[in-house]
């Protein structure tokens, strides 16, 4: 698959690392092109056989997955900007819409989610999938916590889109879990907010993971 990642921060690095481990082609886009180019160079050093390029906005065209590895609400702005260029791609929202001014609530109203708002702003027919928001960047790089593969909880209304994201996760050594329709993103975002808020209190150091055990 061609996996285009919008953003060049820590989560972009984590998702790109998983994609490259699965043998996928990675394109990186950032509003600051030198950041995308710098991350691409670093990823090539870590995965010299991987297909990695830094691109401009045209990099979203013909991509199988377009991963919005940007903080809320930048993903919403991105789908509005790219518009019909996203046709044929599955958009993956990984954001957690936390109100960082207080770190005490989510920045989206009750009864909705960042993923649903992104879907509402995307061009008609563009499937949006929620995934990777319950994983931290450092754990994505390792792919495992306490010797166990990370769970990637996936929500969406498009079965093929969810399947493509599940393939990305599985090929990279993670365990994909389909948790239902896109509205389940509300619970995923709320749960990850709790996970984030507990880091300091529990002394977890952003190295913990959400794991579902049978």
Report on this structure.
The protein is α/β, with parallel strands linked by helices and 214 residues long. It has one domain: NAD(P)-binding Rossmann-like Domain (Rossmann fold). The chain contains 7 helices and 10 strands. Helix 1 links the parallel strand 1 (2-6) and strand 2. The radius of gyration is 16 Å and the shape is globular.
Write the layout of secondary structure elements.
Layout: E1 2-6, H1 10-21, E2 25-29, H2 33-46, E3 52-54, E4 65-68, H3 74-82, E5 90-93, H4 114-121, E6 128-130, H5 137-142, E7 144-145, E8 148-149, E9 151-156, H6 159-171, E10 175-180, H7 185-202
Parallel strand pairs: 1-2, 1-4, 2-3, 4-5, 5-6, 9-10
Antiparallel strand pairs: 6-9, 7-8
Key terms for this structure?
single chain, 214 residues, alpha/beta, Rossmann fold, eight-stranded mixed beta sheet, two-stranded antiparallel ribbon, 7 helices, 10 strands, 19% strand, STEAP_metalloreductase, NAD(P)-binding domain-containing protein, NAD(P)-bd_dom_sf
Strand order of the largest sheet: 3-2-1-4-5-6-9-10
| CATH homologous superfamily identity | NAD(P)-binding Rossmann-like Domain
- Beginning-to-end CA distance, first to last residue: 31 Å
**SSE ordering:** EHEHEEHEHEHEEEHEH
Question: What composes the largest sheet?
Answer: 8 strands, mixed
Count of runs of 4 or more consecutive helical residues:
7
Unreliable stretches covering 5 or more consecutive residues: none
Q: Could you estimate the helical fraction of the residues in percent?
A: 25-40%
What's the level 1 CATH class?
Answer: Alpha Beta
Number of domains: 1
CATH topology assignment: Rossmann fold
Instruction: State mean pLDDT (0 to 100 scale).
Output: 96
Q: What is the radius of gyration?
A: 16 Å
The second-level CATH architecture is: 3-Layer(aba) Sandwich
The protein's oligomeric status is single chain
Give the beta-strand count: 10
Note the overall shape: globular
In terms of DSSP E residues, the strand content is 15-25%
Structural class: alpha/beta
């Amino acid at each position: 698959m061609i996996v285009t990642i919008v953003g060049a921060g820590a989560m972009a690095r984590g998702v790109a690392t998983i994609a490259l481990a699965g043998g996928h082609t990675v394109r990186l886009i950032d509003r600051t092109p030198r950041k995308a180019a710098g991350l691409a160079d670093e990823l090539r050093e870590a995965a010299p056989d991987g297909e990695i390029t830094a691109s401009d906005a045209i990099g979203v065209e013909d991509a199988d997955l377009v991963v919005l590895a940007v903080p809320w609400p930048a993903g919403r702005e991105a789908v509005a900007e790219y518009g019909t260029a996203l046709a044929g791609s599955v958009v993956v929202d990984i954001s957690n819409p936390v109100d960082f001014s207080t770190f005490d609530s989510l920045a989206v109203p009750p009864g909705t989610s960042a993923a649903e708002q992104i879907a509402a702003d995307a061009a008609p027919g563009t499937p949006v999938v929620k995934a990777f928001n319950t994983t931290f960047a450092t754990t994505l790089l390792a792919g495992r916590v306490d010797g166990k593969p990370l769970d990637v909880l996936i929500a969406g209304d498009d079965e093929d889109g969810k399947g493509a994201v599940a393939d990305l996760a599985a090929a990279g050594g993670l365990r994909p879990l389909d948790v239902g329709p896109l509205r389940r993103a509300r619970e995923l975002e709320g749960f990850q907010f709790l996970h984030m808020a507990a880091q300091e209190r529990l002394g977890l150091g952003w190295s913990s993971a959400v794991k579902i055990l049978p």
